[in-house]
Amino acid sequence: MSVTTSSLDTPIGGPSLARPRLRAWAFWVTAVAVYVVLRLLFLFTVQSGQPMFPAGDRGFGQAVDAVLPAQAAVQFLLIFVVGYVLVQTIVSATVEGWRHAKDRFMTSLLTVAMVIAVLPLVSVLVYTVTQGVVKLDGYFLSHSMRAVAETDPNGGAYQAIIGTLEQVGLATVISVPFGIMVAVYLVEYSSGRLGRVVSFFVDVMTGLPSIVAGLFVLALWVLLLGQGVSGFAGSLALVILMLPTVVRSTEEMLKLVPVTLREASFALGVPKWLTVVRIVLPTAVPGIITGVMLAVSRVMGETAPVLLTVLGNPAINFNPFSGPQASLPLYVFSEVGQSSDNAVARAWSAALTLIIIVLVLNLIARAVARFTRVNG
Amino acid sequence: MAAVAAFLIYQAIPAVSKDKGNFFTTFTWDPDGSQVFGIGAVAFGSVLTSVLALIIGVPVAVGVALYISQYAPKIIARPLAYVVDLLAAVPSVIFGLWGATFLVAHMVPLSRFLARYFGWIPIFSSPDNIFGKSVFAAGVVLAVMMLPIVAAISREVFVQTPREHMEGAIALGATRWETIRMTVLPYGRSGVISAIVLGFGRAIGETIAVALVLSANYSVSWKILVPGGNTIAANIANRYGDAGSIGQGALIASGLVLFVITLVVNFGARYVVRRGAKKAAA
Amino acid sequence: MAKRLDVKDLNIFYGKFHAVADVNLSVNPRSVTAFIGPSGCGKSTVLRSLNRMHEVTPGARVDGTVSLDGENIYSASVDPVVVRRTIGMVFQRPNPFPTMSIRDNVVAGLKLSGVRDRKRLDDVAEKALHGANLWNEVKDRLGKPGGGLSGGQQQRLCIARAIAVQPDVLLMDEPCSALDPISTLAIEDLIGQLKQDYTIVIVTHNMQQAARVSDQTAFFNLRGAGQPGQLVEIDDTEKIFSNPTQKATEDYISGRFG
């Protein structure tokens, strides 16, 4: 039987498959139409730089102002987006039917959700940069607050930077070896109850509020053992916070090392601990570094545990083991509480410093992760 | 863990025993003075702000997770996920700073609008018409802070929806949203619930951002637009500096309560996940 | 109800990769056509292009026409959602929706179209389950989840789900390859019954199955290494298996490759 090439152009029987559908051009037309209509409606109230409805008493004006108190252009954008989505949904419902209209509406809604989620991040970053740049200079970074009254325009965050670096540094030095050892134990050696219990506690520790960690160190180290407030006490609290992250990410990395690698080593007669140290760990090192850097960037910004254990200090204290120290996030916190403009400006600059350090660490950590992925 | 609990209890007991009021229900906080104090107000505040944060943040977070996993073209899905995760890297004190200055000022029109047109609903009523730092603002800041966690976990769950279920729905002639509703969402339900619970744990333990955005008092009030309110964590941060020995003990006791709440919440999440896994395997 | 399928000059691309070239074939209403051929030669790809399922893969593109009773399903005014309702599909691995009951699984397609009337849904469910030879086994547990059935039962549930919306064509992508021999036989019997009401196209790795079940068989093969797949020969099943025209067909049938 040869292939028949039928050239029927009209359907034989039954309902056709064709449905009215909105093509791409329909959306552009809708957008332009909505824009034109809205522009005409608000022609007389749009003044650049001002909100569209200054102190509006009309309900609609207040509504728009409530959602987005900003310049006219931004508010117009908001009205445009809402109008467009509404009109698009109605048009789609009329032409394509409810199912497709609902589908398109949900697509728009989810896109809007995405934008909403990104906005705070952009806002925080931009605002921090604009506010903090004002006072951020070499003087700020290299001078402390000793003998500087709150209302003085001088003063800097040097003591805070030193404090943060020392506290986080000590915390890293303690938590990284300890964390790696725990992870090695969990992955390579444990097979029974103890392993499960340890893993369970690590899980619980990940959810520990930072202030509770601070309270613990406060109760135990500072009060009970009478060691007093110090940078080291803060480090201990930070260790509690860093450990779970280091353990978990090291665990993940170790698990990624192929079993075949270990088996090859064993087959050569290499004892287990040596295999771990010389073969497994080095393979997992890039991933471990990423995990450590992420943990470090997280605890650098912790205020609460430091608040309780380190107390803060306007002067420089190079010794983390005795006496109160300052810390960047703590500095931001205390300066913000002051009512003087200078203090607030200092807080912003310190905040900018902090966020730059944290974000740079974060970016480097992720870049390391991307470029050194363990390949099969 | 046991050590944490033990030492906290040890420090807390002397203080709690000196409490002349009922620790759990009293609202005022005056441990070094009249020795009447209780966590009633602050615990209420903790729960209220966190629940508010959930109500505001979870829909957006789930929406974002759906968008990134189902709608975004592959090229931008990774960067978008990264941007959302970046939100989690910002230190909480900076959120507090931004919240106290930028957000609070910008929320005044919204608060005024809500009070004016929806004031007949009790939570929105505002007798003094003063707007600024409030539970509402704290709720928004917490929502922003817990968004990346909920979104990341939800996203991971959505991505794991078995392809064959989705294809089954598509082959029946379902639109994209219908497919998601029939397959992705039911499949990811327990994962999203555990994400929500973890987000709640994060919100309730958040100290600094809340401390900066609330103007603390010890009243218990449903009116979220009125300045005031307090949470356990923020209370500890605010009152620690000038606390005497009983005060310290009292704060530690309240921290212990927070710790217990967090433990329960984390266990809860774990339990839900395990039950969900069991159901899927059945 | 059952309609005729005409495929003309069909070429399928994944991005730049030319997957299938120049397919021309016709399927008569109320008949069974089997696609056979070695792995990777494009059988499933062609099958999926018959109800626009390939569009699920990003970058997939089709040239040529596929006509249902003369109407090209790829024309610009045609809604893929409607195409998939009219041309149903059953997959290799049974995929009932795990969170839905058996009854809800069967009427899932109907509910999507907005049918709400409980009585009507129940009637359709019963009819479809009868049509899939599953009614007697599940009539007492319509409310239980679809995942609790055996593999063969699940696949028949998927068939019930597909025929509940009364499609014109039923596409089956290796429906028995994940099932045991007894279930396979049950489904083959079912196909014999279904062809009285539907046009069926089935992809299968199992040549004996093709010989048992189909009226017309199409043999697909790769043009060469790295080349697109193509339709080598299509004819009445009897002829293909006893006296094929092309040598490649004969080689495949007698097991010399594939």
Overall description:
The complex is a heterotrimer of chains A (376), B (282) and C (258). Chain A has 376 residues and is mainly alpha-helical. Chain A contains 14 helices and no strands. Chain B contains 10 helices and 2 strands. Chain B has a two-stranded antiparallel sheet with strand order 1-2. Chain C is built from 11 helices and 10 strands. The longest helix of chain C is centred in the middle third of the chain and has 14 residues. Chains A and B meet through helix 2, helix 4, helix 7, helix 8 and helix 11 of A and helix 1, helix 2, helix 3, helix 4 and helix 5 of B.
Task: Provide a quick synopsis of the model.
Chain A has 376 residues and is mostly helical.
Distance between the termini of chain A: 52 Å
> Residue-averaged pLDDT of chain C, rounded?
89
Overall structural class of chain C, as computed from helix and strand content, comes to alpha/beta
Number of strands of chain A: 0
Query: What Rg of chain C, in angstroms, do the CA atoms define?
Result: 18 Å
Summed up, the helix count of chain C is 11
The residue ranges of chain A in which pLDDT falls below 50 over 5 or more consecutive positions are: 1-13
Describe the sheet with the most strands of chain A: none
Q: How many β-strand runs of chain C?
A: 10
How do the strands and helices of this protein lay out in sequence?
The complex is a heterotrimer of chains A (376), B (282) and C (258).
Chain A: H1 24-41, H2 59-67, H3 72-96, H4 98-133, H5 138-142, H6 158-189, H7 193-206, H8 210-224, H9 231-256, H10 259-267, H11 272-300, H12 304-309, H13 328-337, H14 341-371
Helix pairs in contact in A: 1-3, 3-4, 4-14, 6-9, 6-11, 6-13, 7-9, 8-9, 9-11, 10-11, 11-14, 13-14
Chain B: H1 2-18, E1 29-30, E2 36-37, H2 40-71, H3 74-87, H4 92-118, H5 135-159, H6 163-171, H7 176-205, H8 208-213, H9 232-239, H10 245-281
Antiparallel strand pairs in B: 1-2
Chain C: E1 5-14, E2 17-27, E3 32-36, H1 43-49, E4 60-68, E5 71-72, H2 80-86, E6 87-90, H3 102-106, H4 108-112, H5 118-131, H6 135-138, H7 151-164, E7 169-173, H8 181-194, E8 199-203, H9 207-213, E9 216-222, E10 229-236, H10 237-242, H11 247-253
Parallel strand pairs in C: 2-10, 3-8, 3-9, 6-7, 7-8
Antiparallel strand pairs in C: 1-2, 1-4, 4-5, 9-10
Helix pairs in contact in C: 5-7, 7-8
